[in-house]
Amino acid sequence: MTNWERFLETFFKPEMLVKYWPDILKGVAVTLELAAAVIVTGFVMGLGLACLRAYGFRVINAFIIVFVDVFRALPPLVIILLVYFGLPNVGINLPSFAVLWLVLSFVLAAFAEEIFWAGITATPKGQWEAARSTGLTFSQTLVHVVLPQAIRIGVAPLTNRTIAITKNTALGTVIGVPEILNQATTAQSFTGNATPLMMGAIAYLVLFVPIVILGRWIETRFAWRRA
Amino acid sequence: MDIILNQFLNFEIMQKVWPLLLRGLGTTLWLCVIVIPLGLVGGLVAALATTSVRPWIRWPSIAIVDFFRAIPPLVLLVLLYSGLPFAGIRLTPIQAVALGFLLNTSSYYGEIYRAGIESVGRGQWEAARSTGLTWVQTFGFVVLPQAVRNVLPDLISNTIEVVKLTSIASVVSFPELLYSAEMARSLTFNSSPVVLAAFMYLAILWPLVRLVSRLERRIAS
Amino acid sequence: MKRPLLEIVGLTKSFGATEVLREINLAQDERELVFIIGPSGSGKSTLLRCVNRLEEPTAGRIMFDGQEVTSRSADLNTIRRSMGMVFQAFNLYPHMTAIANVTLALRRVLGRSREEAEQIGRKALADVGLSDKAESYPSALSGGQQQRVAIARALALDPKIVLFDEPTSALDPELVGSVLAVMRDLKSGGMTMMVVSHEMRFARDAADRVVFMEGGRIIEQGPPDQIFGRPREERTRAFVGELDR
Predict the structure, then answer these.
(1) pLDDT tens digits for A116-136?
(2) Chain B interface, mutation test: which of A212, A220, A226, most B Cβ atoms within 10 Å?
(3) What pLDDT is recorded for position A224?
(4) What is the CATH number of the domain that holds B129?
(5) Could you list the residue range(s) of the whole structural domain that residue B130 is in?
(6) What integer pLDDT is reported at residue C48 of this predicted model?
(7) I need a surface site. Which of A75, B110, B129, B136 has the fewest CB within 10 A?
(8) Are C54 and C12 in contact (CB under 8 A)?
(9) Is the pTM for the entire model greater than 0.95?
(10) Phi, psi (5° rounding) for residue A95?
(11) How many domains are contained in chain B?
(12) Which domains does chain A have, with CATH numbers?
């Protein structure tokens, strides 16, 4: 066998491709589900926390800042393992999918809060003054005038951060979530062949390369000219 | 309540596993000392390549950088560690981990540098070159310093990410901090070692996180 | 004799240790255009911003249309509806069209329906001469046009007084005229106006009363002829003299 044929045999064995692509596809479905769930929960929580912070209650803000700092400073894997293996010992039994979703959502929420908060504080004071001087309440001003501008400012950093965190779904393999990497490594250990691994890598690329490219486009597109 | 304290904040166990974790921390820091400087240099190379005026350098570079930004770091590690042997290349754990992290972080640092370089106005280049400075001198003395200052919070932020990333190496049995803590956990059936590891990460990274927040606030104003 | 629309009594404002306003007493009747002049740092803008409590007075009372603005239980949002404010930096909402800028408060504060608000908004824009720019975003408008949209935004709520904080200071000279024209129309329509500005010619032509401030105090006030022609106070004379030079 030539070197090329051996390479193909090791990494792209046709029988393996056929046999395992359903499993990989199942993994893709799980990864996508997770990613979608994490993004929705993370954004909603992050936006909510940032808005809450805008009201300026000292005690609440202290809690928010601590929460956000801790979830930005700790490696996600540490939190995942702590929650997954620790909670059952105090009586809380969560399935691995739920653990992964919760932890990654909180992490995304922490980063999203900081980004939205930066956007809120970057909105010129004059916007608040103009709106309040027409009799709009604090909440109305926040929702209709400030948030749209804050979110616009935050789109680019938020996109990057979201991509990074949804890639962390691969960590689910450590606690048995049947996402792509898990399916790939399981198949690989059964067959002693690297093809499933290669299939997993390609699945990730197919998912994330377009998103990375989309992220580039969003970065350039989303700075709108201020009045 | 007691169960919670015993399971997560058992100081006796923490004391016992402290030396083990300290060694793991040392390995973590050592890994960072290797990967971060190399990543900063690699990032510079990536930034120069992706902003090159020659398309035959620029497009492949962008493709490579996007590849390493798209693939999850853990997948990359597993590929290098478990997949390469099939191609006849057997890397030691440290080599696989170092290479994987280097490729990953160079891509991210590269993108940050690129944004920084692009944020330095054309006028700076033109002014410097028109006084006779070479391209290298202009880049080194005029452009790069300004670029770095503009993206300093992002650079620090990414460095924080690299330190956090080292915990992933535990999955391929690399004996850094999390691996040591996990081992201690399975031996003691108690989560306190992992809590201790978490505190260690916080001790190092929390100040940096605060620093980044303050820098970002100052730049925005 | 009708009571004044706006009464300021003993207004004092300090920022930390610095006293910016000292015991200001000022009354303004309906339909009056009060024009406030003075060197920078004299507290003119601060005075204006205290009227709708964008700045919180340190001491003193402000009565507007029979209500005490400075009272702790004052319903600020309701009071502010009857006061319009125009800012030096325009402060238009960049993510909304001109018509949306004008109708936001109509819909959210006054609770008008979309159609009602549109009607009122378009009339306001027509009054400032910008009907054709209703669907434009602020970034597509010149400075003068933006400021006129800002005026329309303030007018749409049918206020009893409009406060102008250096409305033309941020405009290129050739655009100033269009804004002043709108202000003149407003005056002839009978609107009560309090204006802080450096546009002295406008003051001479349109103001009912000119107030000269310095160092946080009102030095002199009176009709434009007096302040610009025969000032009684030495400092007024010095300031006005500088202007003519």
Answers:
(1) 998 999 899 999 999 999 999
(2) A212
(3) 43
(4) 1.10.3720.10
(5) 2-220
(6) 94
(7) B136
(8) no
(9) no
(10) -65, 155
(11) 1
(12) 28-221 (1.10.3720.10)
